Amino acid sequence: MAAISPFSDLASLAKALSGKAISVPELVQIFLSRIAADTTNSFLATNPEASLAMAASAQKRLDSGNSDGRPATGNGPQGFSLVGLPIGHKDIFVTRDWPTTAASKILKDYRSPFDATVVERLELAGMVGMGKLNCDEFAMGSGNTHSAFGPVRNPWDLQAIPGGSSGGSAAAVAGGLLPAATGTDTGGSIRQPAAMCGLTGIKPTYGRASRWGMIAYASSLDQAGPIARTALDCAVLLSAMVGFDEKDSTSLERPSEDFANGISEPVRGAGDPRLPLKGLRLGLPREFFSDGLSTEVRQAIEAAIAELKSLGAETVDVGLPRTSLSIPAYYVIAPAEASSNLSRFDGVRYGHRTAGPKDLEDLYCRSRSEGFGKEVQRRILIGTFVLSHGYYDAYYIQAQRVRRLVAQDFDAAFRSCDLIVGPVAPTVAWAIDAPIKDPLQDYLADIYTLGVNLAGLPAMSVPCGFGNGDHKQRPIGLQLIGRKFEEKQLLKVAHHFQRATDWHQRTPTMGASE
Amino acid sequence: MSWEIVLGLEAHVQLRTQSKIFSPASTAFGAAPNTQAHMIDMALPGVLPVMNREAVACAIRFGLAVDATIAGSSIFARKNYFYPDLPKGYQISQYEIPVVQGGAVTIVTDQGLKSIALTRAHLEEDAGKSIHEGVEGLPQGCSGIDLNRAGTPLLEIVSEPVMRSAKEAVAYAKALHSLVTWIGICDGNLQEGSFRIDANVSVRPVGQVAFGTRCEIKNLNSFRFLEKAIEVEALRQIALIEDGGTVTQETRLFDPDREETRAMRSKEDAQDYRYFPDPDLPPLVISQDWIDRVRSEMPELPNMLRERLVKHYGLSDYDASMVVASRDTAQYFSEVLASQATDAKLAANWVMGELASSLNREDLDISESKVSPSQLAGLIARITDGTVSNKIGRDVFAALWSGAFESADAAIEARGLKQIQDSGLIARFVDDVIAANPTMVEEFKAGKEKAMNALVGQVMKKSQGKANPQQVSDLIKERLSAGV
Are B50 and B195 within one domain? Predict the structure, then answer.
């Protein structure tokens, strides 16, 4: 058995498996051992028996010489088979092999009788499920500090948050506990932790990924996507994850796409191979580079843009004037939907039920007060308020208007550019024990990511540097935002960027786990 | 002061679809508790609703039947409230933009036909059932929850407040019930809750334009209760106002045992349902093509048939509306006409009279009638051609009902019920009766019409009912005037 680095990307692991340098069970065992020694609190559940069983059947598939006759994902020159590759799932996806909690006490030990479509598809593609990943409770948060099962630590700097809400997904991959993970993104929950953990993550166009089996936070904003090391890995994973699902009425009927196919080609087809981005117009929204942006992040983003230009891209100034309004709009719409989505957690049929309720109202009040954490309660209260009689028009309807305006801003910007680039977050990861701030300050940290969800666009995060001074171990991510359904272009640009840079290949030096 | 009652009705009509409105579970009634609850109905984490197109087709069918506007795009909303038999904590319903808008249902009143305007009809899901007493296996004081009904598709049909009496309300409810079963979207079973009515009741002094404050009486599942509930509620409101009080807007329940309504909850503690569009369901888009397809599968509607019966067969509005009261009755009637009976009026009398009361007596549905349409047609033909009298016809009918005979002709033959054609024999009976009843003869001569009837009756008795009463009456008159 060859020495396999747990920090390898999926493409390399696939090569090792197909070249028989290692078997699937051996590979899975490496990661199971790493997970067992985790110091980041990334995992909420593992099931080694189930993982090893999947590993054994994946090995059979590999040995039989084909990937079971299904059209292989990523079968272009750059693609690879996912058979036998390990993956972890954010604990927002329901699974039969592991409990599903949404990182909430109210679902402690809950076992789903079915698998989420995304999980099912990845398993059909031959991937080996490694367990369930910590996150902010019901995906509400930007730092993974709002988990009922404790915060997740950033493997780059254990004193820092990993980002959120898919914090466990990002920390596990960054820490070499997994080569890839699923995440969900309602307002930046894939992109922001990917950025803060030095990883690549993509949120597809709303409607691409089925939400069946994804515990709903804000139904009109939630999307699933992968977090991995490279754009190529994300492209192959995303191809396997998305596609029409009749069980989700908001999933879009579009032909399946292989996002890895042609990923190395120049964006405009033929041309100088040293200038693969030639002809690409990058839009730089003024509002993404204004006062709130920290200097260290600004420097890294500007350097990344310079790199993209050196690959042939040109830049244009664009405006997204409603950027600041996307925060209040999001924090009306998302809590409104959440307040209703979370009503089913009532202590009646499953999940936490208070002891000895004196009547029905007491059962509801105490089960929910005991079961939900502070941030979830806050959003339920906000959502209940904005939907209330007499406030609905002023808040919810107004927020929907703003949502349309935000989408129109993007449409207008895309008339003069092909892609929007900017930071994912205004700062690097903050300290895990930072005193609890005004929640509004937390909400402001999502300023560059929320608009994308309001508009339903695809967007990704690509590692592009680190902070300064004390923040030298805190990664920074570049955000790429595309037109609807242009995931492929995003991934292509990210791929070319990663061929020219090595930020995505850096690994943390974790005292505790080395 | 004289008062006017103002009534608007909301009907909850369970749609006859195979599966539920947002899940693949069966809608069949009567299964063991919770055996027909899909994980979507149980609101497990991660599930999503998928619209059942069959339910939409039912709504389109209804919209076409009442000549309403069918919205090209309508919206599903969430109605949020907590209750143990509402697993999601919200009911998916249509709020601002319903699928069926406007339309009307025609009813027959003492003053003739009246068109009852509809406000809207919208699709929604039913809740489950909470069973508070006698649940097997549960200790005293525990409630059971059965989610078999959760997610059953409902069409809520809302009328304008245009009815003015309990009778009218019942006529409308019956017409609506007939219509939804006629077009096949509801099984119409009142006991099983397939058709439930809420009545909005208010009163105002006659002549006043403004509406009074209304109360809503919930969940009336029989026409009798509907009528009684409206009557007692209107009287309650009138008495309250006349005593100087005011009506408060509230929801009330009808207690059929005590024949009174009781307050359930008032407007003050009414819930704030926090309606908002359901983000899990895109707008319901209905193409003209779909509407046309549903239209092409529509049966002839009761209104059209009623008009045809009045115009072409000379039935009265009342008779025609009785015939079209249910699709089975109309079907039976059409088959009678299609056989050999040409006298539609007579056929209507028989269907509404002898047949209806026989069915009633044995609690049978018309589709289970022991006398087939063609048998009845045969009987009517014999009445029309004078073979038997209408009265003897009832005996023939009874004979057919008993199942002993294939046809009216066979029954008439076997039982010897044919009308006596021999005028000499009838004349003899008449003479005998005149001779034996001098008092009656005197009375008739003194101008008492009743005496005539008695004499005819005597003759009929003598002939064992087989004489033609008209012939008998003519003959008696002839004899007595000649004999003066």
Answer: yes
Whether residues B410 and B466 share a domain: the answer is no
pLDDT exceeds cutoff 80 at A364: yes
Percent of residues in chain A assigned helix, strand, coil, to nearest 5: 40, 15, 50
Task: Name the catalytic one among A42, A51, A81, A165.
Answer: A165
CB contact under 8 A, A343 and B88: yes
> Are B262 and B359 in a shared domain?
no
CA proximity to B154, closest of B9, B17, B7, B294: B17
Between CA A421 and CA A440 the distance in angstroms is 25
Instruction: State which of B228, B261, B293 marks the end of a domain.
Output: B293
Say if residues B52 and B27 touch (Cβ distance below 8 Å).
no
pLDDT in tens, A74-130: 444 568 999 999 999 999 999 999 999 999 999 999 999 999 999 999 999 999 999
- φ, ψ of residue A149 in degrees (nearest 5): -110, 25
**Residues B465, B442 share a domain:** yes
Interchain contact, B45 vs A94, CB within 8 Å: yes
Domain range for B469: 423-483
pTM of the predicted model as reported, rounded to 2 decimal places: 0.89
CA distance B453 to B448: 10
B345 and B244, same domain (yes or no): no
Mapping DSSP to helix (H, G, I), strand (E, B) and coil, where does residue A212 land? Answer: coil
Chain A residue numbers with beta carbons less than 8 Å from the beta carbon of B145 are 348
Which residue of A lies nearest to B276 if distances are taken between CA atoms?
A387
Same domain, B346 and B459: no
Tens of pLDDT, residues B436-461: 888 888 888 888 878 888 888 888 88
Active site includes A90?
Answer: yes
Number of domains in chain B: 3
Catalytic residue check, A165: yes
Domain architecture of chain A: domains with CATH = 10-321+409-505 (3.90.1300.10)
Q: Which of residues 150-179 of B touch A (CB under 8 A)?
A: none
Q: Mutation test of the interface with chain A: which of B83, B280, B281, B285, choosing the one with the most A Cβ atoms within 10 A?
A: B280
Q: Which residues of A touch B279 (CB under 8 A)?
A: 218-220, 250, 337
**A108 catalytically annotated:** no
Q: How far is B41 from chain A (nearest CA, A)?
A: 11
Question: Can you give the pLDDT at residue B466?
Answer: 79
The enclosing H or E element of B265 equals strand B260-266
Same domain, B20 and B65: yes
